[in-house]
Amino acid sequence: MSVVVVSAGLSVPSSTRLLGDRLAEAASASLGQADVRVIELRDLAVEIAHVFTNGFPGPGLSDAFDAVTGADALIVVTPVFSASYSGLFKSFFDALSATDPEALTGTPVLIAATGGSVRHSLVLDHALRPLFSYLRAVVVPTGVYAASEDWGAEGLNARIARAATELAALTATTPATRPLPRQAAPADRPRRDAAPGGSEARQVSSGREPAGQGGAEARQGAAGGAPLPKRDSFEDVTPFEERLAALRPGG
């Protein structure tokens, strides 16, 4: 059983990382045995920015994508900036979903956030939960928010324990609820699909088609030849100059 923690904390030490570690420890205890890996997004900030301009993840980011895609469960933790998740946190999952729209489909995800005030606690249900619902993940009912005054308080320990228990329960049951394969896996599967262990096995079992060239064609024909709805993709974006030229008279 693999658990991946995605932490968007920026400082060292980081309360966001600390919350992720405590959630991972509680989840491991609930699961009985789990391999835990922590991904610090601040170490990948440059590669995350580059993927939006060149469309390709660098080695470090690609490895992180492999870990997240192949995980049996995710714990995602972000600091609250301007009443929402941090831009680095959002950009990571934007880049992931752009390269593989089905990367998180059916994956149990425990959402968590840290902030300086309890007034931002609704960020879990107003920002994080909609984001991961859009990505078709299975979000744990209990989210964990930790304000400065929560550290050391009994209430935080109870929320961590309850959320970890729910994550373990979802991880045990979710494989049966994940989507059935929509098509056979293509021969030219991209490198991320070839990751060893659970990544490849889960990719095949969930029928995730590759992103990039061929992905649009692969999404067709699964239901009597009718094209499936498109998700966000760099390839699907028509440059603004082309749209503007089409609107001009004689364009």
User: Biggest sheet, in brief?
Assistant: 7 strands, mixed
How many alpha or pi helices? 9
**3D shape:** globular
Give the beta-strand count: 7
Strand content: 5-15%
Mean pLDDT: 80
Measured between the Cα atoms of the first and last residue, the distance is 56 Å
Low-confidence runs: 180-223
Pattern of helices and strands: EHEHHEEHEHEEHHHH
Oligomeric status: single chain
List the helices and strands and how they pair.
Layout: E1 2-7, H1 15-31, E2 35-40, H2 45-54, H3 59-70, E3 73-81, E4 84-85, H4 87-99, E5 108-115, H5 123-134, E6 138-139, E7 144-147, H6 154-173, H7 198-206, H8 215-218, H9 240-247
Parallel strand pairs: 1-2, 1-3, 3-5, 5-6, 5-7
Antiparallel strand pairs: 3-4
Helix pairs in contact: 1-6, 2-4, 3-7
Summarize the structure in short.
42% of the residues lie in helices and 15% in strands. By secondary structure, the protein is of the alpha/beta class. Helix 3 packs across helix 7.
Would you write up a description of this structure?
The chain contains nine helices and seven strands, in the order βαβααββαβαββαααα. With 251 residues, it is an alpha/beta fold. Strands 1, 2, 3, 4, 5, 6 and 7 form a seven-stranded mixed beta sheet that branches. β1, α1 (15-31) and β2 form a beta-alpha-beta unit. The longest helix has 20 residues, at 154-173. It is globular, with a radius of gyration of 19 Å. The relative contact order is 0.13. Residues 180-223 have low confidence and may be disordered.
